[in-house]
Design brief:
The chain is of the alpha/beta class. The chain is built from 14 helices and 17 strands. α1 packs across α14 (about 385-400), α2 packs parallel to α6 (about 165-185) and α8 packs across α12 (about 350-360). GO terms for molecular function: glycosyltransferase activity.
C-alpha cells in the first residue's frame, strides 16, 4: 500500500505535525510505502528517515512569514501551493492508495483540497482542531475567554470579534473558511477524530455536509520502562505553547496559591508574565529530554485548556510514564484520565486547579495516582504500531470502495476503471 501523508512541516513543532510525522514512521514500519509531503522547508524529524519513507518538500512560504497583505491572500487561497502539489503528485513513481491530510492553514490553504479530491484515491483528513468548521480554528471566543457557542459562518459568527488578533484577521479567516467550503463543495469527506468529544462536537457543527466520521486515537510514543516515581518530584509541569486558551496562566496562578513550584516547558506570548509570577520557564526541549525532565521533577502534568482542545498529547504521555495528569473538563484528554484514580479532571479555573494542586502535596496520593496511571496505560497502550494498524485498516476499507486492488505492502495498486467517477 502506498500512502501520501501531507503536513505543513516535517518536525514536531505542534501536536498536528507530531502526529503526522509519527504516523508516517509507524506506517512505514508496518510495511506501507509512505510519501511525506511537507509544504514549508525547515528542520526534518529523524523519524522520517526510513527505507520505505520518501519525503517531498514543496518549499512554500509559511503565511506568517509573509507581508501582511500577501499572507492574507495566500492564506485564503494559495494557487501556487495547488500547482506545486499537483506536480509533485504527478511525479510520484507509484500510484497512490490513500491521501491523508493533517494541516492546511499555514501554507497549503484550501486551494489544495480540489487537487486532492480530484485524485483517483480516497482522501482522509485528521481533525486536530476545528478549522473544517470554525474560522479561527479553535471554536473559542478570545474576546470573552470562553468556548464559542455560535454556529460557524452564521451571521452571529461573522459579527463576533472573536479573533485573537483583530477584526481584520477575523475577516481573513472568514474568507479562508468560505474558500474551504467552496473547495470541498459537495464532495464526500472522510475525517478522523482523535477524541470522542471532537466526534460529537464536529458531528453537530458539520451537520448537513457530506462527511463520514471515523475515530482513531493519536499515537503515544513512549519507551516502555518502569513507571516514574512522581512523589519524588517537586513541581507541577506544563508542556506546550504558553497561551491563555491553553491555560498556561492558570497553572502559574494555581501553583502559587497551592505553594508548589510550576515548571513550564515551551514558549509563547505568556512567557514573560509567567516568569514574573515566579514560574520556571525553560523553553522547548527535545522529546527525550522532556520525558527525562518530567520523570525527574514532575509530581503531575497539567493541561487546563480553556478551549475545546482535542488533545493534548502531553496528558497521554504523562499517563504512559506513570505521572498523574490533571486535565481540563473541556479537553479531549480528559477522556483518558480516570478522575481520582489516574489523575484529576478539573474545571479550567484557578480556584479548582489550586485545590487540585494542594491535594498533590500528599506523597501517598501522588504515588497511587502514578502507579494506577501506568497500569491503565499498559492495559491498552495507544502505541505507534496500534495507531498504524488502525490507519491501514481505514485506508484499505476506503481503497476498496474506490476499486483499488492491493498488490502487497510495497507494490502499487491496480484499479478497476470506475475510480474516476467516484468524486
Amino acid at each position: 500500500m502506498h500512502v501520501v501523508i501531507l503536513a505543513e512541516f516535517a518536525t514536531a513543532s505542534g501536536g498536528a505535525e507530531k502526529v503526522a510525522v509519527e504516523s508516517a514512521r509507524g506506517l512505514a514500519e508496518a510495511g506501507a510505502r509512505v510519501t511525506y509531503v511537507q509544504a514549508v522547508d525547515g528542520p526534518v524529524d529523524p523519524l522520517l528517515d526510513h527505507p520505505r519513507l520518501h519525503r517531498v518538500a514543496l518549499s512554500l512560504p509559511d503565511v506568517w512569514s509573509l507581508p501582511a497583505w500577501r499572507g492574507a491572500v495566500t492564506g485564503v487561497w494559495n494557487a501556487e501551493a495547488a500547482r506545486r502539489l499537483s506536480a509533485a503528485l504527478d511525479a510520484l513513481p507509484a500510484a497512490v492508495d490513500c491521501l491523508h491530510l493533517h494541516q492546511w492553514s499555514r501554507a497549503f490553504s484550501p486551494a489544495v483540497l480540489p487537487v486532492l479530491l480530484a485524485r483517483p484515491a480516497p482522501l482522509v483528513l485528521t481533525l486536530h482542531d476545528y478549522f473544517l468548521a470554525c474560522p479561527n480554528g479553535v471554536y473559542y471566543r478570545f474576546d470573552r475567554a470562553e468556548p464559542c457557542s455560535l454556529r460557524p459562518m452564521s451571521p452571529a459568527c461573522l459579527a463576533a470579534p472573536c479573533d485573537p488578533k483583530s477584526r481584520l484577521h477575523k475577516a481573513v479567516r472568514v474568507g479562508r473558511a468560505a474558500a474551504l467550503r467552496v473547495a470541498t463543495g459537495r464532495a464526500p469527506l472522510d475525517v478522523i477524530h482523535v477524541c470522542d468529544a471532537s466526534l460529537a462536537r464536529m458531528g453537530a457543527l458539520l451537520e448537513g455536509r457530506p462527511v463520514r466520521h471515523h475515530r482513531i486515537d493519536n499515537p503515544v510514543r513512549v519507551a516502555p520502562e518502569a513507571p516514574a516515581e512522581p512523589a519524588r518530584g517537586e513541581a507541577v509541569a506544563y508542556v506546550g505553547r504558553l497561551t491563555a486558551e491553553k491555560g498556561a496562566d492558570l497553572v502559574a496562578e494555581a501553583a502559587r496559591r497551592a505553594g508548589l513550584p510550576a515548571l513550564f516547558v515551551g514558549a509563547g506570548p505568556l512567557e514573560d508574565s509567567l516568569r514574573a509570577q515566579g514560574a520556571e520557564v525553560i523553553g522547548w526541549r527535545a522529546p527525550s529530554e522532556v520525558a527525562a525532565l518530567l520523570r525527574a521533577r514532575a509530581r503531575a502534568v497539567c493541561a487546563p485548556s480553556r478551549w475545546y482542545e482535542t488533545g493534548p498529547l502531553t496528558i497521554y504521555e504523562a499517563l504512559a510514564q506513570g505521572i498523574p495528569a490533571i486535565a481540563s473538563t473541556r479537553s479531549g484528554a480528559a477522556e483518558k484520565v480516570r478522575h481520582g484514580e489516574t489523575g484529576l479532571v478539573v474545571e479550567p479555573e484557578a480556584g479548582p486547579l489550586a485545590e487540585a494542586f494542594g491535594a498533590l502535596k500528599d506523597d501517598a496520593l501522588v504515588a497511587r495516582l502514578g502507579r494506577a496511571a501506568h497500569a491503565a496505560y499498559c492495559q491498552a497502550p495507544p502505541t505507534l504500531a496500534a495507531h498504524a494498524e488502525a490507519l491501514l485498516g481505514l485506508y484499505r476499507r476506503l481503497a476498496d470502495e474506490y476499486g483499488i486492488r492491493h498488490c502487497g505492502s510495497e507494490g502499487g495498486p491496480e484499479r478497476d476503471g470506475v475510480v474516476a467517477a467516484m468524486r
